[in-house]
């Protein structure tokens, strides 16, 4: 399966959470926005500052983020993605989720390859379904 992976999916894997994506091992190819690196690393830093991660744990989790990203196709957040993200969408969606959805839709259009949206974010899942994507993870 080819899946667009949003930050919520990657963070649950990186943090070793028990409620991670059930079909994680079925993903042959992962696609993500370059935004994922920023979101993951900012979240890890917040956890460290709140005392939820030690310096050693932070280093381990950051390394896990970089290893995952190396194995995926990461799409740059450029003008085309940002332009598409600012267009009207069929459901209410915040800025970052709009960038994720637009990235997935543009990747599908440019490659002519189907992919599923993997997310634990309910609003993103709803918008992805409204745009014709199969969704896993919610």
Note down, in words, how this protein is organized:
It is a single chain. This protein is α/β, with parallel strands linked by helices. The chain has one domain (2-136): Rossmann fold (3-Layer(aba) Sandwich), CATH 3.40.50. 52% of the residues lie in helices and 12% in strands. It has six helices and five strands; from the N terminus they run E-H-E-H-H-E-H-H-E-H-E. It has helices at residues 7-14, 35-49, 55-70, 79-85, 95-111, 122-130; strands at residues 2-5, 29-33, 73-75, 116-118, 135-136. Strand 1 (2-5), helix 1 and strand 2 (29-33) form a beta-alpha-beta unit. Helix 2 runs antiparallel to helix 3, helix 4 (79-85) packs across helix 5 (95-111) and helix 5 packs parallel to helix 6 (122-130). The longest helix is centred in the C-terminal third of the chain and has 17 residues, at 95-111. The radius of gyration is 15 Å and the shape is globular. The model has no long low-confidence stretch (mean pLDDT 96).
Helical content (DSSP H or I, runs of 4+): 40-55%
Regions with little confidence, pLDDT below 50 for 5+ residues: none
Shape: globular
Q: What Rg, in angstroms, do the CA atoms define?
A: 15 Å
Structural class: alpha/beta
The CATH topology is: Rossmann fold
| Count of helical stretches | 6
Tally of separate domains = 1
Widest sheet: strand order?
Answer: 3-2-1-4-5
Q: Write the H/E string, N to C.
A: EHEHHEHHEHE
- Provide the β-strand percentage band: 5-15%
Name given to the CATH architecture:
3-Layer(aba) Sandwich
